[in-house]
Every structure is written in C-alpha cells, then in structure tokens.
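Bumping with the actual sequence this time:
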Amino acid sequence: MVVSRFANAESDDELIDFVRSFGPVISKSWKILPFDPRIRPKGTDGSEVQVLMRAQQNLQELRIEQRIYKAALGLVIELVKKPAEFDFDGAKRRMVEIARIIQGWPRQWNREKKLRGQNPLWKIRGDSMRRIAAVARSGPDLLLPPQVDARIVICELVNVFPSFAFPNRAP
C-alpha cells in the first residue's frame, strides 16, 4: 500500500525513495517540460508517458507531512480494532501530533497560492483546525465510544483535500 510505505518510512533515504517512485508529496516548485517525441519514457504499466513534470520536494516538508500521515494511519488502524482493543491514550497522542503539525498548513497554503498564482485545490478551514485541536485535548466522553474522536480527526483531514482517483499501479 502506497500510503503505508510513506507513513512507515523510517529514514530520509526511504522518504527520498518514495518520492522517486511516486512523485513529490508537496512540491516546492514544479515545471511542465515540453514534450519531446524523441524521448518516450515509459509509465509503470509500460504505456508511454506524454507529459513530463520536474518537481522539487523540500525534505523538511516531506518529513513533516510523513509525521501527519503516520499519525493518521495509526488512527485508522485503531479504528479497525475491536472496541475493547482500542488504545485511547495512543490515539490521543496521534491526534495531538496531528493538531500540532497542521498549525503550519495555512502558511503552506499561502506559499502554494503564491507559487501557483491561484488557490491550491486543498483548503484547511480554521474551524477544522480548532475542532481537531479541541478533540485532541479532550478526555474520554462519558456517553460516546472512544473511537468517535479518532473518526472526527480523520474526517476533518480527509475533507481538506478534494478526491481524485488515479489508475496507476504501484511499482
């Protein structure tokens, strides 16, 4: 699974290998290269690639995003466990990590807007950031199951990004 490969990377070399295989997570800069019919690069499925892009990935941003993905994947893993096996304290630690790191997303969004000359496709709302922070700080609810907080955080994260589906196979 591509997401778990990124989330579970344990070194900069593994993160760099991920970017080389799948492309950047966040591009510091990018450029569409002119099509050259003499160059026929192959996609992972053997088909010819018609558009080439050169993108630059900032390693520090990649590390930060990897921590968010790792914490979010950990929450998802907790959610598939039986209720009696749910690790409330571990889930809360992951939520706190996510809440802390996403505080930098508004700066990142503004930087992307400046580079693109238009609004990025993703958007973090202030109320979503506040909701994630509040859920991360809260204790166990007396009436609701402990998994509800993890579900709220995952939903808030997913709702930041528009959905796109790509048919590419993982290498």
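The tokens above came from a reply further down the thread. The first strand starts at residue 27 and ends at 33.
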